[in-house]
Amino acid sequence: MAEAKKAPAAKAPKLADPMEASIEVSTQEMIRRAQQLNIDTVFDRAVTMKPCAIGLQGICCKNCAMGPCRLPLPKDGIQGEDTRKGLCGATANTICARNFARMVAAGTAAHSDHGRAVAETFLSVARKETEDYKIKDPAKLLQIAPYFGVETKIEVDGEMLDRDLDEIALGVAEAAVKEWGKPEGTLAYLQRAPKPLIEKWEKMGVMSRNIDREIVDTMHRTAMGVDQDYKNIIKQATRTSLADGWGGAMIGTDLQDVMFGSPSPLQAEANLGIMKEDHVNIIVHGHEPLLSEMIVAAAQSQEMIDYAKQQGAKGIQLGGICCTANEVLQRHGVPPAGTFLQQELAIITGACDAMVVDVQCIFQNLANVAKCFHTKLITTHPIAKMEQDNVVHIEFDEHYAMQDAKRIVKMAIDNYNERGADIMIPQHKATQIAGFGVESIQYHLGGSFRGDYFTLNDNIINGRIRGIAGVVGCNNARTKHNEEHITVIKELIKNDVIVLTTGCSAIAAGIHGLLTPGAAAVHCGPGLAEVCETVGIPPVLHLGSCVDNTRILLAATEVVKAGGLGDDICDLPAAGSAPEWMSEKAIAIGQYFVSSGVYTVFGYHMPLEGAPEFKDYLYKEMENIYGGKWDCEPDPIKHAHKMIAHIDKKRKELGIDKARERVLMDMADRQALGME
Q: In which band, very low, low, confident or very high, does the pLDDT at 451 lie, cut at 50, 70 and 90?
C-alpha cells in the first residue's frame, strides 16, 4: 500500500509591513502588536485580497442576472470603433456611467439620511416632544429660516416685531423635513448659491426637486434597459449630487448647529495616545452625532464621573473615530483617537472599555477584534446592526436620548475592571486647533465688525495667499495611510495655498501637527505664513465632518459675495482634493463640487479607465457646462501641483497673477476688479 501523503504545511498568512502601511508611528506600533497577537486588521487584509482589475476600470455590470458582464479594454487600446457590449448591448460608456451614477446615489443617500435623522430630531425638539435637545444657536435658526420660507418678523399694529422663536423653529422643522419628499418645486437651499451658478443649473435642468426623488430617479434610470445615454445619466447624477451638497448634507449641518451650537475654534489633542490607562475609555465612532452629543453630556456628568471613581477609575476619557469624532471635537473638544483605518487599533490597545457605533464606515471586523479583548461593542442605529453574538444593540430614540446615553456610559464603566493585564496605548498624540466654520473664518480673517470675507479676498488679490484648497475625505487601505493627505497638504501650504479640511483628512492633519498656528512658520510659504502669524490661525482650517463639506461651499460663496474674485465659484483661485478616497460618499461629494464649479482632483484611482470617452466627458466637457471638472492623480506631489496650476490659471484670468502692493480697497473697487 502506498504511503499516505502528508498534507502540505499551511502557508503563513501574508502580513502588512507596518512601515509600508502607514506613515503614522502609533499606527505602525499597533499593526505590529496586532500581528503579534494573531489579530488580522484591514492592513493585513489589504495585502491578501487584491482588487478586481475590471471593477477598478468601472466596466463590470451587475445590474441584472444575465451578468456580471465584464468589458475589459483591449491590450492594445481602442482601435477605431469601440465594439464592446454586454449581453443586452450596453456599451462601456453606459456601464461605466451607470456605475458612477449609482455611487453618487448611494453617497447621497448616506449623507442625506444623516440629514433626515437630524431634521426629524429637530422636529421633535420644535414640537416639545423631547427635553434632551435644545436650540443652542438661535441666531443660526434665524439665519436659515428665510430659505425655508419662514418669516422671522410679524407685523402687529403696523410695527414689525420679532416672531416667537418656538414658532420659527416649528416652521423651519416642518419645511426642512419636507425637503426629502415635497411633491413640487426645487430644493430650498439651491438659492444659497451664487446667481450665475443657479442660472447654469436652471439652464441644464439639474435643479434638484426633492432629495428622495433624485436618488430613486438615479437608481431607476441605471437599472437594466432604462437610460443608455451616458451624458443623460450624468445629468441625473449631477441633480442627485446637488441634492446632497445643497440639500440633505447642508440641512444636516445647519440643524446640528442650531441644536448643538455652531462650532468655534478650540484646542484639543489627536491620536490613539489620547486614551488613558487609568480612565474608563469610551470611543464613539460613525457619522451621526445625535446620540454622541448625549454621550458627551452623560460622560461629563458628575453622576457618571463619581460612578467611574467608585469602580477604581480616575475618570472617563471620551474619544472618537471618523466623523462622529469630528462632530464632538468641533463642539466639545473631545479628542479624536484616529481615522477610519485606526478603528480596529483603538480596541487592540486593550484599554477600550466600550466602542459605540452609529452609521457609516464601521468595520464588521470590529466584532471579531472585540472578542479578543474585554471591549463592549455597542450598535445604536436600527439600520446598522451586526450579526456577531458579542455585539450589544441599544437602539437610539431621541425621546429617551439621555437615558440611553447614561445606560451606555454605565455599561462602559462596569466593564473597566474586566480588562486584561496586557494593555498597550501608544504614547503619541498631537495638539490641534479645530472648530472652524463659515462664521468663525469670517470673524478671524475679517473681524467682528466687517461682516464679510474681504480680508481673505484682499490677501488673495495681493498674492500673500495664492488660493484656496479643500482637502477632504477618507483613508484607503490601498494607499499608504495618511501619506497622500499629509503630502498634498504640506505641498499646498508650502506654496501659499490655504487649506480647508474635513473628515478623516482633518483628523490626519491634526495627528501630524498641521492644525496649529505654529505649523505656519514650519511648513508655509512666506505669504501664507505672514497671514497666519498676523491673524493667529493655522494654515489648515478644520471645518468638521464629511457632511460639513457644505461649509466649504458656503465659504466659497461668501468669497464670491465679498467681491474682487469673480462672480461665480468657478472664477475663484480654488480647487478640491480627496487624496485617499474610499467611500461612495466621496463620489457624491466630488460630483456636487464639480457641478458647483470646482476643479476636483482625486487620488488613488477613479473607476473610469475602461470607458475613455466617458472619462473625457468628466475630465474635460464638464468644465464647459458647470465650470468645474474631475481629475485624478495618485502621486501626491503631482496631485498638489495640478491644483496649484489650476489656481494659477484662475489668478491669471482674474488679472491678479502678478504681485502687487497691498492697498485698501472699498467694495466698489473690488467689484470693479471682478468685472475686468
A: low
